[in-house]
Amino acid sequence: MNKIDLLYGFLIGFITTAIGCFVFIQLFTEWNFAVGIQIMRSQGYLGKIITLGSILNLIAFTILLKFNRDLIAKGVILAVILMTILTLFL
Question: Global pTM?
Answer without folding.
Answer: 0.88
